[in-house]
């Protein structure tokens, strides 16, 4: 490819709304162009990256036995009503009416459509297992689209769906996808982790996120440097500390803490470490009748250590809270605790409350909590002596660096990541409501056991940039670079020798299947180099009159500090060897 | 590819709403699956065809110097308001509101978006010419979607847009695309014609349709078997017959033609050939003031020969009618002709009317027309003697078989076609209203000269089937077949020898880059053959125990009546040779 025949549109400045590096750099490198909030044209330079991502995904999906199809972008509402998602999904689901006032949606995913295909096409267990995927435009009407392709409204996703006759077979299909995802992410050339994720109501361990490591990532990834344990924050279990509980050393006393309503303020006032304090969270559950009228409510008090953070997903697994909970209202809190939030605690309640202690809190001694009286706390509190043992003990909190790894093989570390892939065992979540069944060997209809498997095709380049950039621009891994090699001739318009050498090198590399760009625009060296460093082409060869007199060119990898001189005659072979590696 | 790893879902019956062969066969072959009216999932078998079409289009577009990008499916209304299309386009334009009640459209084409890109990215004449294209999902909310992929609502289109600094350069860009389209359609392996089409108000000859020949096609294609002349019906010029007009032989006389209001009925009654009669069409034009109020109207009488059809596009080019016309109302007709439609003619008018004669009519002698009196016609009518020469003579009619070719090199023939591609010179139709300018060499801003170039990616397979099918199913050309070769082993589950030979042949062909399918489903021969004949794979090799005992296999092209026996050892080489040809 020659630059004069391509559309290169680098910009000096990024738009003001570009908050993250990938957004800024993709805009400046002319890879994307904003059309509306969260809606981008993939410009030629950006589309080349996307197509390379697609090709890798497609190859590995096919290798894993998945079969590609393409489902419509505009989907009739009827199917979405069968699963209830048409009503349940919020305004993220873009709804349309056609000229006959029939309801449609723009697909955000395609579970309904693929399940509809399966219930028509896969009639016998003999046709199973089966995995159908597509690489197709999706739309989610995000309330606040931002970060360029990272959280856009229109995007391209690879979504795959597996259909199996039973849970054991579904698990094998899941494993096959999980392995295919490792192959895909390995080929991208990015640092990533496959992390265990929460699989929601279905249970089991069949949910993994594929996170590209980047310190700007929105997600915390928990891992153990001494083992292969990795999970997201919701899934990472905080083990119970090695018991037993320390003996009580202090007497309980009420202390004045005027205006100090946070654990940090109270600890500072009392001169105690934060990990001696206990935070209170008040929740409520409602028992309803058939019509949804509330019959009675139960108030809950959840306790975690002052330096820990409550994790809502974990809270939602506590027996009694697992059917749904809400925050307690202020009137409910006053009714049960006798005071407003800020000074709450488990002692001196006005009405009974179910108390759940985090595993860590359950083993604490001499701790501090609110006194259920404004401007007062209690210190020296001890379980069993000052209050009964909690009704339940559970893992309620986010893990922190240094916690024991759940696999018992070291201590946890935390880094940040960007979720680009997700493999998920669905069970019969869609097949049952849609009555999607096949005839099993015994002649009886059974619902499909399903899995779904996504990769954010247009998010991946953004994640790659978050991980790989410097002050000059993007640094693409070879596998997904828009061009792998750029040939930069200096003074091509003045020197026939430079022109001939540059064109010959370009043609030789192109003939060898290298994705090479020849910059024949006639830009000055500084501007030319700046463009390609911004765009992030990993390998650069510079040809100049002076160098060619000695038969030399300059090679520089995008990460190299300095160029390396080498003979013109050798550079093509050198590049081929380096790219094959 | 092995059939057991693919999704083959052939059907015995086509749905009742499948009216045309391509729709029936794509449904029966499991290539598409209906999701809603005019909305289809491209199933794995169909998607393979679409991907091959895309690949050919992409290669040739790139070769012609066009650069690929991808514009959003969901587009903000603002740009569409700039050109007025948001209001002017009818309900075919699918309109949506997002969660913030902002207006969007689902793209039916992308002129507005690409022009917006150009006005931002192409600032100097040095960046021109430029051609941007995409292969992307489109939506047109057809009132009556039908014929499967032929007239769907959601479809894939390749749309390209060229930007040039002046009309001469734009013409070269147009020619380059026109040539690229020939290369593309040649590669599809279909019989097609590039036909001149009407370029509307812009004038000039820069509009061509690419029509796949099929007797079920909706469009009439006019061509000259003795030259390369080809045009669509609107564009094909009906030349003036070689003059001069014959001398009058009859006296004009009024004849009773009770109840005979059509030319055919009158000709039969009078025992004259239909080409001696003349049809009348009454139109009107309105002169309006600035507010659109009608100041005065002009009534027109257009005359074509009784056996000819009026062409509305041609009528719209007659001076005086080219700013817009309408059909005259019955009161206007009575006011000017003194009678109701059915017996109208140019003689004995009550009020003046502008008379335009078709070129053919202008040279007729002794003709028949209405007498402007119910149940009466005139015969033996002659220009100059019975009425003045017409105010104007013009080409008003559709050409018919046997007309002189406009290039003077033979006589015209007519066949039917399906429009799959269109190249069109737009001029400044979009750049002017959108103020899309570049700085020319003289430092002044000028609007881009544009062209647009479409190919119906998902319509092409349907057109290919209309052209190539028989009672057993589809017959794909090699280039776009879902699989090029199918290997059909008989009794693979019983015979290790058959299995081994089939797998080896499959692997050998696959390694040579042949797109080969091995049917390892274990179907009985009849069902297996019927499936592949329905699906339309062009080359089939059958392996059986009996044949292999003699080292023989059977080869059959989808169009062959009988199989050809050949040695197993030679079939791979034979196929490679045949496919390379």
From TrEMBL, chains A, B:
Name its cellular compartments. Cytoplasm
Instruction: Please give the Gene Ontology molecular function terms for this protein.
Output: proline-tRNA ligase activity
**Which parts form a coiled-coil structure per UniProt?**
none
Q: Where is the Aminoacyl-transfer RNA synthetases class-II family profile domain?
A: 38-477
Sorted UniProt keywords: Aminoacyl-tRNA synthetase, ATP-binding, Cytoplasm, Ligase, Nucleotide-binding, Protein biosynthesis
Which Gene3D superfamilies does UniProt cross-reference here? Answer: Anticodon-binding domain, Bira Bifunctional Protein, Domain 2, YbaK/aminoacyl-tRNA synthetase-associated domain
SUPFAM superfamilies the record matches? Class II aaRS ABD-related, Class II aaRS and biotin synthetases, YbaK/ProRS associated domain
Catalyzed reactions per annotation:
tRNA(Pro) + L-proline + ATP = L-prolyl-tRNA(Pro) + AMP + diphosphate
Question: Which HAMAP family does this entry report, sorted A to Z?
Answer: Pro_tRNA_synth_type1
Which PANTHER family is this protein grouped with?
Answer: MITOCHONDRIAL RIBOSOME PROTEIN L39/PROLYL-TRNA LIGASE FAMILY MEMBER, PROLINE--TRNA LIGASE
The UniProt subunit note reads as follows: Homodimer.
Per the entry, what this protein does is: Catalyzes the attachment of proline to tRNA(Pro) in a two-step reaction: proline is first activated by ATP to form Pro-AMP and then transferred to the acceptor end of tRNA(Pro). As ProRS can inadvertently accommodate and process non-cognate amino acids such as alanine and cysteine, to avoid such errors it has two additional distinct editing activities against alanine. One activity is designated as 'pretransfer' editing and involves the tRNA(Pro)-independent hydrolysis of activated Ala-AMP.
This protein is called Proline--tRNA ligase
The scientific name of the source species is Ramlibacter aquaticus
Q: What is the lineage of its organism?
A: Bacteria, Pseudomonadati, Pseudomonadota, Betaproteobacteria, Burkholderiales
